[in-house]
Amino acid sequence: MNFTLKTFLPYRLNRLAEAVSAEIRPVYRDRFGLNRPEWRALVALADIGPCTAKEIGAHSAQHKTKVSRAVWALEQRRWLRRETAPADRRSETLSLTPAGRCAYGELLAPMCEREEQILGRLNVKERAALDIALSALEAAMGLGRDRRRA
Questions:
Q1: Which of 64, 74, 90, 120 is the most exposed place for a label (fewest CB within 10 A)?
Q2: Can you name the CATH fold of 5-119?
Q3: Tens of pLDDT along 78-112?
Q4: Domain boundaries, the chain
């Protein structure tokens, strides 16, 4: 077997994810001083609605420690609220406050613009092929659509 790191799928995907993240990072960092875990927690709450920290971690593929710190930071900004679940007082439901929804709304358009700039480097066929390939790989890895949003 002839192994080279530059053709190893996990290495390629990680490099690509880091490069894309580096291009998107200035939008949320410069506008609101958010770090990546905070941005991902904010987006997860906006995307799936009220949920637990564990659900944010699963949705955003983040470790529970990072989610916990991000939730705390968003709570300090008064962008999210915690409510104790009546059925299980050990569990908390997290949701965005009006200020959190406003911040998310302010970030959405520039984030989508930056994504479009990145995808604009591909032609129409390449974009379609990328979408098909990513969807197929996600399905093969058991990362289908989030059932809460389906």
A1: 90
A2: Arc Repressor Mutant, subunit A (1.10.10)
A3: 999 999 877 777 789 999 999 999 999 999 999 99
A4: 5-119
